[in-house]
Amino acid sequence: MKFTGVVLGAALGMATAGVQAVTPFEMDVATSINDGLAYLDSQGVFNNPPTNANAGPSAGLTMLALLEKRASGDPNDPPQGYNGASLADQQRLRTNAAYIISQAGNTGIFDETYVFGNYIMGLGLYMRTGGPGPGEHADMAGLPYATSKAALDAMVDHLLSYQITQAGPGIDDGYWCYGDSYAACPDSSATQFAVAGLGAAKSVYSDPAFADGARVTALNSALARAKAAYARNGKDGSAGDECGVMDAIER
Length: 251
Prior knowledge:
- The protein is mostly helical.
- It is 50% helix and 0% strand.
- The protein has 8 helices and no strands.
- The chain has helices at 4-14, 24-42, 59-67, 87-103, 112-128, 148-161, 188-205, 213-233.
- Helix 5 (112-128) runs antiparallel to helix 6 (148-161).
- It is globular.
């Protein structure tokens, strides 16, 4: 995904915090973030559907770049979320959210673990910071789910449905493959996106506004199995031939 690096770079820049007043460097970071977001906007990333096809699978990451932005430019301030965003940013967020909700049932695609993982991250924070759902704004009309939570539930349940399960447990138990239509292919990077998305979903379901105890229980189980998988495989000599053998420092 061509835009992933830009978005992640913006997110990393936003994590830089000054101790006192905003420094010239922090001002430069804020300017760079806004310039990056303006570039993404010029490429149609915030359209529904995105004008550039490469942006569709990473729509959750572009949402996070907007949601995590500090409106003041001061990295010590809280992220703007939806409620704290400018009217222009709110419109972009609604458009991204509408696109994600429209795609929540689009299973059986290549790399869907990466796609749903980042979709859940973006949509979950949008929901928790006041973003309107289907039927609550003109930009959110005509979507295939009655609520944002229903779309989130569909993506969460689908990710949970194809986590690799092995008796024993087997060495790959707890990982994810690229998507549900592929044979079991334990992939660490796909699993990272699944875990990040499900961790974000757990925050949503733990919020009184979207409380869902049954799904919190299911997520706790899935996340614990993934944690155990990384612990089980992250040991000396565990890497494949293509990566060489990890030493203790690299692990």
